[in-house]
Design goal:
Layout: H1 10-21, H2 23-35, H3 44-53, H4 59-93
């Protein structure tokens, strides 16, 4: 006898979509990590958000990257100031119109 198979429900389709996208694995990993915490955080939702946002990177990597970004921003600001200063000094020595006389 042939088996009748009911059409897939939207719920089942959505569940498969989440599995294929890796969402189920990510959520499971974060929840397992929360479960294994010796001292549970006071705000479980914040814990989940932080660990999902990290994309698998340890917090120390994220902090190091943030520090590097801050350092590079400061360097960029210093270089922009130096560039502005050099341009103004150059204007003092260049004749009008920027052309150099022969």
């Amino acid at each position: 006898m042939a088996h009748y198979r009911a059409p897939e429900t939207k719920r089942e389709q959505f569940r498969r979509y989440l599995e294929k996208a890796g969402v189920v694995d990510s959520l499971t990993s974060v929840l397992v990590s929360l479960y294994e915490q010796p001292e549970k955080p006071s705000n479980a939702l914040e814990f989940v958000k932080e660990h999902l946002n990290s994309g698998g990177q340890p917090a120390t990597d994220t902090e190091a990257l943030q520090q590097e970004v801050n350092d590079l921003r400061q360097r960029c600001a210093r270089l922009a100031d130096e560039n502005k200063d050099l341009k103004s000094r150059l204007q003092h020595y260049e004749p009008e119109g920027g052309a150099v006389a022969d």
